Amino acid sequence: MSFQRAVRPLVAAALITATLAGCAPIILGGAATGALVATDRRSVGAQTEDREIQVKAEANTANTLTADAVHVNVTVFNRRVLLTGEVPDDATKQRAVDIVKQISNVRGIVDELAIAPKSSFGSRSNDAWITSKVKANLINTKEISANVFKVVTERGDVYLMGLVSEEEGRIAANVASRIDGVQKVIKLYEYVKPEEAQRLSTEAQKNPAPAQGDDSNAATVTTTPIGNDTVTAKPLATPAPISDAPIKPGPSTRTGN
């Protein structure tokens, strides 16, 4: 067994622990880097609402679904919810979606829950390792800012979220597709024009503090379409297929908590 394979579960476990503690370092060549400058392009209101949606969704799914057979991860970006993990059957899968649909201010849902046994600790540790490598490689890519991307890995599939230009999104997906162990890259971006992306980054540096938002929309559900892009960036490893999966906005009506 190579040194990297031996140490990977230990590092991944540390990443999981750090994330739960609210402080997740980025691993670069085995060393943790300091905190990055905040350049989140979401509005301060959207950042606050995202945290509220995530807390409610996690609590409601945990309290409603049978824990022994369910592993549901909730990721929220700009009031759009990504559900990943494993559930035992279609009924549980639909129930998880329905729970999120009842939360106020959710704009859209991407249902990526798999009907399968709960993933093992080893699988989740490997996912944490992949996420850390993707983030590290994004940091090392000069053409983009790693801070504007949210990275989620589930069973080797990497989901990328963010308010990005098409070129930024393409570069990040190509970088992620060449990480060892990545099975597929799914782009869940909201695209903005390059000048708008720059404006949002500039505004984010001026206004880093979160604030309450009051915009609201009802949730709609989309699933990831199957499709591959041609990858043409400098290869770091065998590229994984890349799928486009933009989240569609829902109707402008509020649902109850």
TrEMBL record:
InterPro entries: BON_dom, Lipoprotein_DolP, Transpt-assoc_nodulatn_dom_bac. Residues 214-231 have a biased composition (Polar residues). Residues 197-257 are annotated as: Disordered. Signal peptide: none annotated. Residues 49-117, 126-193 form the BON domain. SMART domains: BON (SM00749). PROSITE patterns: BON, PROKAR_LIPOPROTEIN. Keywords: Signal. It comes from the Bacteria. It holds the Pfam family BON. This is BON domain-containing protein. It comes from Pandoraea iniqua.
